[in-house]
Design brief:
Length: 406
């Protein structure tokens, strides 16, 4: 194709457009031509060329990285402020909030004492001695003769509010011994709100002075915690953060561990649960007190506490047994039909442990299921007079069969 002649400079520009594909519209012609020449040389040498990024594109990438980093830092700062604010609220002060970042209390903080509870450095709280029918040891029993006479057989019952009532199944066990009442004592050491961990601590504190011949542990499905409650100024309870964390992930990943450590994640989870439909088939999934019993990660600790109780009892010459009182939703047809193995999982886990460890074990589920139409519960957890009667009817022959009652 002939090239019109319009002058030397115009001819040079035209040649550049045709062979280099560069538009000479700015002062950057030479800068743009250099990469083209390099590409030609590389292609001639058989090397695949790599285009150099333009300064504008590099600036865009740097700006995008800056925006992402700035947003990430802002999000992290917001989360950190929120975490500290929630801890400040929950712990009752800024200093306590900072302290809680590094560690958790091994024992619930005592916020005061009430009429019938008092703080205890190890157990969290105990029954106040000498009030509401308690003896000098804080037990719902007349004063014990110490040291125990050799002629007396003493059964010590550990448990929570299920076994606590003065006219409950513990009293009915005692009544079943009336013909031999002068030689048999059934001592109620149950304390409302206690967990398996606190019951083990309670046994260790009492065993030397009480000197039991047999120890019976009453288990409930809200016992899979170190501490479930802490005292308020009025002597009531607040559910502990440890118990509330039962609603958070149980796997061992980094995100799950952070979620269990974070107070902010806990409160967010509680808000979500409060606004979602309740699980009517398995209601324990929404209850922080009971959810832990269906979590595999809580059982190694509970197993260890029960084995330690067995060993403490044996070291003092006492036999040891466990009785499990079912949670009322475990009796429902819906739960049993949907997944019976899951519904009865806590009792199955206990039965397996006791079988391996040589511990006598009684599961009251069958007895309660057969009588569930008779009004056994007041609130799904605590028993009516009829519930205590059904429990005692099964417990008394069980204790006698295993040499734990005369």
């Amino acid at each position: 194709m002939p090239i019109p002649f319009f002058g030397r400079d115009h001819e040079l520009a035209t040649l550049q457009r045709l062979f280099a594909g560069v538009r000479p519209r700015t002062d950057g012609v030479r800068a743009q031509c250099a990469p083209v020449a390099m590409r030609k040389q590389a292609t001639t040498a058989g090397v695949v060329p790599v285009a150099a990024p333009s300064p504008r594109r590099a600036r865009s990438r740097h700006f995008l990285a800056f925006v992402v980093l700035a947003n990430l830092l802002a999000f992290t700062a917001c989360v950190a402020v929120g975490e500290l604010a929630v801890r400040w609220w929950r712990e009752g002060g800024l200093r306590a909030a900072f302290a809680s970042l590094a560690s958790e209390r091994a024992v619930p903080r005592s916020l005061g004492t009430g009429d019938w509870l008092q703080a205890d450095a190890t157990r969290g709280y105990v029954l106040r001695a000498g009030v509401h029918g308690t003896n000098s040891l804080g037990l719902r029993h007349p004063e014990l003769i110490t040291p125990k006479p050799a002629s007396v057989f003493r059964l010590l019952v550990l448990g929570d509010s299920v076994a606590f009532p003065a006219d409950g199944f513990v009293a009915r066990i005692r009544a079943a011994c009336e013909p031999a009442a002068t030689t048999t004592e059934v001592v109620n050491a149950a304390t409302p709100g206690y967990t398996t961990h606190q019951e083990r601590l309670h046994l260790e504190a009492l065993v030397a002075e009480v000197a039991p011949d047999a120890v019976l542990l009453q288990y409930c499905c809200n016992d899979n915690h170190r501490f479930l409650h802490q005292l308020t100024d009025a002597g009531g309870w607040l559910i502990t953060a440890e118990a509330r964390r039962a609603l958070l992930p149980e796997d061992g990943g980094v995100i799950a561990r952070i979620a269990r450590w974070s107070y902010l994640a806990l409160e967010a989870r509680r808000l979500m649960l409060a606004h979602r439909p309740k699980d009517v088939v398995f209601p324990w999934r929404d209850d922080p007190a009971f959810a832990a019993a269906w979590r595999a990660d809580t059982w190694p600790f509970v197993d260890g506490e029960i084995l330690r109780m067995r060993d403490v009892a044996a070291a003092h010459g006492a036999r040891f047994a466990v009785v499990a009182v079912p949670y009322e939703p475990q009796l429902s047809d819906g739960a049993l039909a949907a997944d019976r193995a899951h519904a009865l999982g806590p009792q199955a886990r206990l039965a397996a442990l006791c079988g391996r460890a040589g511990i006598a074990f009684l599961d009251l589920h069958a007895a309660f299921a057969s009588a569930r139409s008779q009004g056994l519960y007041t609130d799904g957890i605590h028993l009516t007079a009829r519930g205590h009667e059904v429990a005692a009817t099964s417990i008394v022959p069980f204790l006698r069969a295993h040499g734990l009652l005369r």
